[in-house]
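Predict structure. Chain length: 691.
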Amino acid sequence: MYQFVKVKAGLCAGVSMFATLPAVAETVADITEISVSATKNEVEAFSVPASVSVVTREEMDDLLAASVSDLFVSVPGLSFDGGPRRTGETPTIRGVAGEGVVVLFDGVRQSFLSGHDGRFFIEPDLLGAAEVVRGGGSSLYGSGAVGGVISMRTLDAADLLSDGERAGYRLKAGFQVASNEWMTGATVFGQSADGRLDGIASLTFRQSGDIGLGDGTTLSADDEIGSGLVKASYQATDALRLSASWMGYRNDAIEPNNGQGNNEGDLMAKRVVSDTFRLGTHFNPESQLIDLQAVAYINKARVDEDDLDTDRIIGRDVETKGFTLDNRSRFALGRKANVTFTYGAEYYRDEQVGSDNMTADGTRGGVPDAVANTTGLFSQVELSLDTPVGAFYVVPGVRYDSFKNKALGETLETDESATSPKFAATWEPIENLMLFASYGEAFRAPSFNEIFADDVHFTIPLGPTLQAPNFFIPNTDLRPERSKTWEFGAGVDFADLFTGGDRLTMKGSYFTSDVTDLIDLEVNFEFSMACFVPGFPGTCNAGTSRNVNTGRATMDGFELEAVYSSPRVRLAASYSSVNGRDKDTGDYVGILSPNRLFTSAELKLPEIDAKLGTRVTLAGRFDKVDDVAEERPAYETVDVFLVWQPQGGLDGLRIDLGVDNLFDTAAERVFAGVVDAGRNAKVRVGWTGKF
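Prediction complete.
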């Protein structure tokens, strides 16, 4: 259902970028990045009236990624919090984090959320492409798409096979110095002679240790990771294609219960288990009215933590079951107007169970046993129109969601709904220029963790043996966070600008959002008399905590992306700035980040079957804080890389060399005092055989 493709005009899909220079020159201006997640249809990313970034398989390979955050270094407006440990990585888009960002793997929702664990239980080497849609996306994706959507597609056999090839294998091994990480992987793939059946199976293993930081210190970490993918599709008839896949992830780690930041607390043996099962179908007969896609899935994610100093074992288990169904009907309104009408439904059910072997009933405080059911109906129109004053692309859409939450074994429950409209339009007055504007409303339904929060929040010591606990209490009146966003942007796209076969694309936008009913934690300190008067009836406690709707906020910012490609070089740059303020108090809100400029330069050397490049990130001083102690200094990081992919007798060999953070900068990227990894030399050797 979710695909990322490149359209190549008049070229064989098997042409290598490391062939002869003239062949490379043909490909640069004719490759167009296609976005699917922005509209649920294949649309040229440049023309979409939204801020969309596509990360291709080729770009991923060059990054030598060890974690998901490594894949998105060039994407403006997207940052990752949590610190250097991969198990704590959580995304933030335009200052919105947590439940405000939708994460999809092959269209499957990733609903696992906790206070200290990450959201990306996936191996980067198993990905075929990724897309980031920034800005409110609730008109298509419902709850959670306030900040945006991160959609990833796993590898297909088609990603690794060229025309005329039937099957193959790929072997990889690599090492990274900063965490002493070894990586090995093996993949087999193939298709039948008639092309109707194809499949891929892959396994990847990683083992890493303590992380060397940019300030010369070492962060305790110990990961053993195994990841697998089995995926197949079958063209049953000319109109019907079926697909099925399993993706698994296992991580055994030694780290603190809160593995985020540079925290070194009490170490625990942490076990992450994630399995995603997916069935898909695509029915596309010879009809303009039917282009039907459906996906059914089960995603299971569990994190167990074994305290190394005690016998306590705690766990969080989240299971998501769901399906999506959508159809496209296409119409021609005369010779110069075309309409694509996309409509469908989505249902998913999240169930959470917490466990603690030290409690009388085995339940875990702060992790309520609960279930959430969400049903959504959506529709969207895409109108393409050629007029004497230019080409127009207009996209109105709306979605209705009903969501219910219930605490298992209790009578507490909630039942609400939301409607999310959106209108966006692009105008291309001349061939190389586009202007766009959009308005959209989005929402984030309160999670069952927020609604049904229970048990002890924290304790205050009052003496050698006396503790005053503060307790979470549920709030079934909690309302969804809602946003209204305006966005305005422009872009230019030139081919054969300076030399034959080159291309320059630039696109930038300004956005502003009004957010209401912000969900925040309210803590009431009310010590009971039993804390101070011996023998007083009742127990000693220090009040309560609950999640409440409080305040209004304005988020705004600017983003820019630019790429220039030619037969010899590829230059890219991105810039982002985001700001958030509480309308009532003037305080900063959101997970804000410093103004950031990313640049990359790549030199292509087909004469020696190689390319080399560098990436530079410049971040300004971060002073968008209410407490000066939280300010962070500016930083600059420099990466370098070299790729050698020889032809001839060694065709199939690929060697990658790289050094991240070349100058060992002590970058405080996510929080004050939290230092990123230092200089990291990397190497990977791969061999691909096909027949």
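Summary: The two ends are 28 Å apart (CA to CA).
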